[in-house]
C-alpha cells in the first residue's frame, strides 16, 4: 500500500512538472566580471531569451544582498522558463570584486554596469541559439537595460524602474520622507553636476554623498530614463507595483509619457521586490527577508505573454 501511495505521488509530481514545464540550469561566465545562470526550457528549440538585470547595490543573480534575501529574480527566471522562455540572470560585478577584494569605490562607474549588460546580450547573440533576446531590468537595472537594449534587443521590460534621473528621484523621495533635507540634497547634486564634487552636505545625507561614491553618482546622474527609453524602437513593457515603497507609480507614469506606445501595467498589491503585500508597510518591509515568498503570478504571466507574442 505504501508503495502504491508513493507511486501515485511520484506520478502526480511528474504531471505537475509537465504542466508547468521543466528546464535545465547551467552556470556561465560571460566575461571576467559577469557570472550568471542560464535556464533552458526543455524540449524548446531556439526559445526566446530574457536577460534579467538586477537593481542597485551588491545584488546577486537571485535578487539578494547580504542583509536582504528575497529570491525575487530567481523566481521570476524560473517562472518564465516554465513558460518556454530561456532566462539568464547574473551577479553584479561589484559582488565579484568584493569577494576578490579588488573593489575600489571611487572607481565604480555606472557605465561599467551598462557594459556588462551589453556584453551579456552580445555573448548570447553570438551563440545564435535563441529566436529573440529580450532585456528585463529591475529598479536600477531598468535604466541599465534600456540603454543596453538600444540597437541590440528585440524587446525591453522595465520593472520598478525610475522615470527620472537619480538626483531628481532622490530629491523627490526626500521631499516626502525628510523634507528638511531636500534643499540641501538638491544643492549637493547641483554642485556635483557643475564642479564635480559636493562638499557642503548634511551628515544625514552622507550615505548618498560620501566622497568615495560621488564619482559613481555623477556617472549615474548623467542618464535620464525618459530620454533613453524614447530611443527604443522595439516593443516595451513598463510595470510597477502598487505597493512599491521605493519607486512610486508616478515614476512608471513618467516612463509611459516618454514612450506612449509602450505597454503599461500597475500590478495591485505588488511591492518593489515583486511580492504580493496584503497588509501594511511593516509586512512590506518584512517581505524583504522572506525568501520563500513567491513573486506575483500576474507579473510572470504578463511578462511571459509579452515576450512570447
Which key phrases capture this entry?
2 domains, disordered N terminus, 44% helix, Rossmann fold, 8 strands, eight-stranded mixed sheet, 309 residues, alpha/beta
What does this structure look like?
This protein has 309 residues and is of the alpha/beta class. The protein folds into 2 domains: 20-164 and 224-308, 3-Layer(aba) Sandwich (Rossmann fold), CATH 3.40.50; 166-222, no CATH class. Helices cover 44% and strands 16% of the residues. It has helices at residues 2-20, 72-81, 93-99, 110-127, 140-148, 166-177, 182-195, 206-209, 214-221, 225-230, 249-258, 281-286, 297-308; strands spanning 23-31, 34-41, 49-53, 86-90, 133-138, 155-159, 236-241, 263-267. It has an 8-stranded mixed sheet, sandwiched between helices. Strand 7, helix 11 and strand 8 (263-267) form a beta-alpha-beta unit. Helix 4 (110-127) crosses helix 5 and helix 6 packs antiparallel against helix 7. It is globular and about 60 Å long.
